[in-house]
Design goal:
It contains two helices and 20 strands. It is of the alpha+beta class. Strands 1, 4, 6, 7, 9, 11 and 12 form a seven-stranded mixed sheet that branches. Strand 6 and strand 7 form a beta hairpin. The chain is elongated, with a radius of gyration of 36 Å. The relative contact order is 0.13.
């Protein structure tokens, strides 16, 4: 049990991605026993405890790193070693391009041997090189490196891979910038006419800088031509250069009193801190939407109609009472003027 625990931890820590490389119509029967493996950053002696590799390098620099492939299976296995550009999924998880996609950035900087054979319950350390182009743009160039196994059966071919991220930053002046696009604001009235409504704000955020960033800021809605304002916190999750995120948030307590001006302000933050000389670009965007207090106006109309109806009914009753009283008086005078009275 003591010997097995480190292996289980290594497997759980590894990034496991299964990529279909052909249309799958059915599940193929495995031709070999189940294979389990892990890939980790390493030194000459084996896994060195790092979760991923992160290096800041100068243009033109060449460095050697190492990875360890650990085979937990009961038989020897041949693994293909591959590197590719890295990116973040919609859920914020790091991934690397599929084998049928072409890398154009950090994935092209890594050179590693194509295959490695690892015996049962064995660990192999494999060196690989990172070569930074002399004209590399300062900033982050994410990549991933993985050991893959392709299984086939019938019409199905599935490539399974386990690997880790390689975060490379080319030295120089970096830029942290977030762009706000497609900003829209929609006012939603409250079902209760005595309560204020809500502004729903939607926009997309794009990392226009050269490094991975997060972002913080605020969304502000002003009403009554700026006399009153309401705020909500805005945050941008981690984005790699060129990455994009969708935002959907709400500002509560807003009354529909004409033009409602909504502004979004974001300040980017470098993931590992802003180095000296970094250029930080704040961004903002504004949209105005008109909203009228329809529930309150309808309530006021109903109340006005009720008041008017009560006044009309009261006036008619008074008129009828006056008519009856006048008729009674007329009948009394007629009775008094008859002969014999």
């Amino acid at each position: 049990m003591i010997q097995t625990l480190p292996r289980l931890i290594a497997v759980v820590a590894a990034v496991l991605v299964t990529v279909p490389i052909a249309p799958a119509a059915a599940t193929a029967e495995p031709a070999t026993p189940t294979l389990t493996w892990a890939v980790q950053p390493a030194d000459q002696n084996g896994p060195d405890g790092r979760r991923w590799i992160e290096r800041t390098l100068d243009p033109g620099q060449v460095v050697t790193e190492r990875l360890a492939v650990r085979n937990f299976g009961r038989g020897a296995a041949v693994f293909s070693l591959k590197a590719a550009d890295g990116y973040l999924t919609d859920k914020g998880r790091f991934n690397m391009l599929r084998s049928d996609q072409t890398s154009v950035d950090g994935g092209t900087w890594i050179r590693v041997q194509q295959k490695v054979t690892v015996g049962a319950n064995e660990t192999k350390v494999v060196p690989f090189t990172i070569t930074v182009p002399r004209d590399a743009r300062p900033g982050d160039h994410p990549a991933g490196i993985a050991a893959t196994v392709t299984s086939t059966g019938g019409t199905v071919a599935v490539e399974s891979r386990v690997g880790f991220r390689v975060m490379m930053r080319a030295s120089g002046t970096i830029t942290a910038a977030l762009a706000i696009n497609n900003l829209t604001a929609t006012y939603r009235h409250s079902w209760n006419p005595l309560s204020a409504g809500t502004i729903r704000v939607r926009y997309s955020t794009t990392n226009d800088g050269s490094v991975a960033v997060t972002g913080t800021g605020r969304v502000t809605t002003t009403e009554l031509f700026g006399l009153a304002s309401h705020e909500a916190r805005a945050e941008a999750e981690e984005m790699l250069p060129g990455g994009r995120r969708e935002a959907d948030l709400r500002v509560a307590g807003v009354w529909a009193l004409g033009p409602l001006r909504t502004s979004v302000d974001l300040t980017p933050a470098v993931r590992d801190g802003s180095p000296a000389g970094a250029e930080i670009r704040r961004s903002s965007a504004t949209v105005t939407v008109w909203a009228l207090p329809w529930p309150q106006m309808i309530l006021a109309a109903i109340l006005g109609a009720l008041v008017l109806a009560v006044r009309i009914i009261t006036r008619r009753r008074r008129q009828r009472f006056a008519q009856l009283l006048a008729r009674a008086r007329e009948e009394g005078r007629a009775a008094a003027s008859r002969p014999g009275k």
